[in-house]
Amino acid sequence: MIAGFPGRRFAGRVARHAILILTVAFALLPFLWMVSLSLKPPEEIFQVDFRLWPTAFHGVENYHVALTAAPMFRFLLNGLLVCAAIFALQLLVCIPCAYALAKLRFRGRDTLFSAVLVGLLLPPQALAIPHFLMLNVFGLLDTYAALILPWAISTFGIFLLRQFFRSIPDEIIHAARLDGLGEFEIIWRIMIPMTAPALTAFGIFSIVAHWNDLFWPLIAVRREEISTPALGILLFRDDEAGQFFGPLMAGAVIIVAPLLVAFLIAQRRLIDGLAVTTMR
Amino acid sequence: MTALDQNRARRADAKASFATRSREQGLAWLAVSPALLLLIGLLFGPVAAVVLFSLTDWQLGSFNFHFIGIANFKTLFTDPTFWKALSNTLIYAAIVVPGTVLLGLVVALLIEASPNLRGFYRAAHFLPVMSTMSAMAIVWGTMLHPTIGLVNRALGAVGISGVNWLRDERTALLALAVIGIWQGFGFAMVLFISGLKAVPQQLYDAAAVDGADGVLDRLRFVTLPMLGPVTMFVVILTATRAFEVFDSVRVLTQGGPNYASEVLLHRFYTESFDFLRMGYGAALTVVYLAIVVLLTLTQARLLEGRVHYS
Questions:
Q1: Do B37 and B154 lie in a common domain?
Q2: A62 CA to chain B: closest CA distance, Å?
Q3: Which of A62, B142, B154, B156 is the most buried (most CB within 10 A)?
Q4: Kind plus residue range of the DSSP H or E element containing A280
Q5: Residue B44: its pLDDT value, please?
């Protein structure tokens, strides 16, 4: 790629790695620091000279405190439950709507699509007060329903899936209709399998967003038992045991790890999928 | 085929298409009805409600309220903390947006320059994007700790005495902005990489024929112009996210010290859900909503002129 003399090419290669190692350090240092502190006894954390690996290994104690002082696994389980429920609801609502917008002719289609586009502009945080009040009226505050229901509709999901559904040729749908398939069968047996990458990407967006969300759980939930991971770690910090850096960092590792491990396992396909879908 | 046959066939066709069309109408409405109901019940209804609330003096827990016109907005616009929060949010965005876009672009260009270690670099830069901000903000809090923190230890090693980053009025917002860049630049990188992949090789060949074959020439005449649409997209995305900054503020500074790191969304949260002043909170929401929507629309309009390669 780089034209010119071999010497210049070599220098360019070295420069590339030198700069990228710096930016990688910026990206990864917080994680290294977190893991390092989570393995250290208190006196070593406050020592003047810093070592990445602890001289006295204190990991077992720190993680034990984190797991017993706060229901860390409960937080993770809550996160899983809430994210799965939200995504399932979103699919149920978005897929038929996106299909109709992409492939069916009906009066009001353009108006509905404009409404979806306007919905895309609305930052969800702006709806917090009315959502809070609605849940209050139905007595649902501080329940799982409060964490799930406000997210049942995703204009992003409708928009994204509509774009992908449109890219499937009409001939395929006509052929399926001639074969006697109903519209819902067409969705189930043709549209969903053919747009699996888009659905996966939508799922990742949805799950990452709601697993990491702090704003809404902070409003909707008070009880520790139903806290999601992002809220749970904050409750732990403001608790007595969270005043100690070792256990606090151990807790942070437990909260952050599941998504990061999942990401590292599936990273290549995941990154490509995210880029493609965001640009649509 | 006789004319009569043709005619009959056409008529049958029209009949059938009328029947399928009305069937299609019914099915379509069935398919969109859940989404439509939820759009109204969870998005547009609530937006209307927020506007309505902003005109009342209602407080959570009290049973009656009065319409007080634009009094909430008057209070808001004469409240110095609101202006502080607004200007802080703008300053935060003014640091985070260029920082994220530039860093994301440079990293993307360097990664794509050679296949060497490409996968590792991509994954490593992307990790912050996937991580839970509230937990990582706590980690950043310890890194920025005045005595045991990594940052001040590193500065101390080269003879500079650091400050108490998050408790100092001069540095709190800056520290939060750095955390914001840290969280977001990996996502910008991914978008730029996919933009780079879409640049056709022929353009580089053509540029080489015209004598532009140095790295910088190629960058200036081919790569950067071709990245126009992606750049527009990244800028809008990053700016929107910057205006939504909340987690790091809530976890680390609560807007302090002395409102030095107060931002719009945190102000809104505090007024509405700590002080339960819903009317005032709703007015703040209306202003916030107006800013975010205007921002998105103007940016799209402004950048549209420069982007015509897609």
A1: no
A2: 15
A3: A62
A4: none
A5: 94
pLDDT in the model for residue A280: 53
- Using the 8-state DSSP alphabet, how is residue A40 labeled? S
- The token duo for A243 is 């005043």
Would residue B309 count as lying in a domain?
no
Supply the pLDDT for residue B284.
92
Enumerate residue ranges in chain A where pLDDT < 70: 1-7, 268-269, 271-280
Based on C-alpha coordinates, what's the Rg of chain B? 27
| CB–CB contacts below 8 A, A to B | 269
Range of the domain at B47: 1-53
pLDDT at B83 over 90: yes
- In angstroms, the CA A44 to CA A54 distance is 7
Q: What is the pLDDT of residue A5?
A: 56
Is the domain of B181 the same as that of B213? yes
Please judge whether B282 and A19 are an interchain contact, meaning their C-beta atoms are less than 8 angstroms apart: no
Q: Structure tokens of A189? A: 């047996």
What's the pLDDT at B1? 46
Q: Tell me which H or E stretch contains A164.
A: helix A155-166
pLDDT confidence of residue B305: 57
B window 146-185, beta carbon within 8 A of A: 147-148, 150, 153, 182, 185
Which residues on B lie below 8 Å from A19 (Cβ)? Answer: 106, 110
What's chain A's length in residues? Answer: 280
- What tokens does B276 get? 């339960």
Residue B18, pLDDT > 70, answer no
Residues B206 and B125 in one domain: yes
Residues B36 and B124 in one domain: no
Out of B34, B123, B268, name the one closest to residue A93 (CB): B34
CATH of the domain at B152: 1.10.3720.10
Per-residue confidence band for B174, with pLDDT thresholds at 50, 70 and 90: very high
